[in-house]
């Protein structure tokens, strides 16, 4: 439920609803060609009706993450997350950020990551499209020299 504000217009108090912007989160992954890792691109699409002044998307990474180069996002290997803070996005617009994340292989042959909108201004009235997941698979051992095929497929 949205709080209602009142605005004085021509001597009358008129209810004013605060803005709302339905954000849709997208994510893609591109495997590394030599190192065991992936480039995750996170996107925020504003389905409107109002512009967004800010949005935060947190990517929950596989616990085998070891390091990365996530700027402008922030990588936290202790929490296995990559946090991306977006600035303004007009209604109908899309903004994207990307970061490289490197993994240690072992365990199940899949690496999954889920991007979730955790905050935005104004509020998001449609949470059904606030998350996206990608899964990559690895084959063989990551020894050197690299295998003839990329060890990771997304």
Automatic annotation (TrEMBL):
Residues 22-135 form the DUF11 domain. It comes from the Bacteria. Residues 1-20 form the signal peptide. It comes from Amycolatopsis magusensis. InterPro entries: OmcB-like_DUF11. Pfam families: DUF11 (PF01345). Keywords: Signal. This is DUF11 domain-containing protein.
